[in-house]
């Protein structure tokens, strides 16, 4: 195990290592091997059918990759933002649709589209989590990749804010393996039928 971030050597399982060609800068690959793997494996493990709606909240470091991966994986990709400022950026990344949360209720907009099979939350804002839970289609899932807030706090927020709607809802937490299942950064919520 690596003890320090600036270590020269570390021991790890071979399936967790990636060979980077010598003619390519490690710095160029770093975003794909960190944020890229986090987003890709998170979405891949959710069991969403191509053609279904995947909404991505936040268009920063994780979100901009999530939009691109979701589109390339064949999902109807909806970028969610709190303003209209990132609409062009989202379109360049490949988003099929864009929801400006300052002009319309995000959950309602997604429900008008049929509800999201997956909502990927990449920006740590606990005030919007419960609203995005309501954006899900039946059996839809919420994938939390924002790590600023502790998972139990997020689970309590989601549960407390959705229980009075009369629906029973629950949060599950993923583990971590060498394929990237994201220990403590992954919260998965599934909406009941």
Describe it.
- This protein has 6 helices and 7 strands; from the N terminus they run H-E-H-E-H-E-H-E-H-E-H-E-E.
- The chain is elongated and about 50 Å long.
- It has a 7-stranded mixed beta sheet with strand order 3-2-1-4-5-7-6, sandwiched between helices.
- Helix 5 links the parallel strand 4 and strand 5.
- It has helices at 26-44, 63-72, 87-93, 106-112, 126-133, 151-162, and strands at 53-57, 76-81, 97-100, 116-121, 136-144, 170-173, 187-190.
- Helix 1 (26-44) packs across helix 2 (63-72).
- The chain has a single domain, classed as Rossmann fold (3-Layer(aba) Sandwich), CATH 3.40.50.720.
- The chain is α/β, with parallel strands linked by helices and 193 residues long.
- Residues 150-191 have low confidence and may be disordered.
- 33% of the residues lie in helices and 20% in strands.
CATH-defined fold name: Rossmann fold
Distance between the termini: 43 Å
Largest sheet: 7 strands, mixed
How many distinct domains? 1
Write out the CATH superfamily name.
NAD(P)-binding Rossmann-like Domain
- The overall pLDDT, averaged over residues, is 76
The H-and-E topology, N to C, reads as: HEHEHEHEHEHEE
Task: Give the overall silhouette.
Answer: elongated
**Number of DSSP helical runs:** 6
Query: Which stretches of 5+ consecutive residues score pLDDT under 50?
Result: 150-191
Radius of gyration: 17 Å
The CATH architecture designation is 3-Layer(aba) Sandwich
Give me the secondary-structure category.
Answer: alpha/beta
The number of distinct β-strands equals 7
């Amino acid at each position: 195990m690596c003890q320090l971030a600036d270590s020269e050597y570390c021991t790890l399982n071979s399936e967790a290592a990636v060979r980077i060609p010598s003619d390519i800068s490690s710095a160029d690959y770093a975003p794909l091997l960190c944020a890229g793997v986090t987003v890709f494996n998170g979405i891949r493990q959710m069991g969403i059918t191509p053609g279904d709606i995947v909404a991505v909240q936040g268009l920063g470091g994780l979100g901009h990759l999530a939009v691109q991966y979701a589109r390339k994986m064949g999902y109807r990709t909806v970028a969610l933002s709190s303003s209209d400022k990132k609409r062009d950026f989202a379109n360049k990344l490949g988003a099929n649709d864009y929801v400006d949360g300052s002009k319309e209720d995000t959950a309602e907009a997604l429900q008008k589209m049929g509800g999201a099979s997956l909502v990927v939350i990449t920006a740590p804002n606990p005030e919007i989590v419960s609203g995005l839970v309501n954006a899900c289609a039946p059996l839809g899932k919420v994938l939390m990749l924002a790590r600023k807030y502790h998972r139990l706090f997020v689970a309590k927020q989601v549960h407390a804010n959705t229980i009075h709607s009369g629906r029973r809802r629950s949060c599950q937490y993923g583990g971590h393996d060498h394929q990237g299942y994201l220990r403590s950064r992954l919260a998965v919520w599934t909406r009941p039928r």
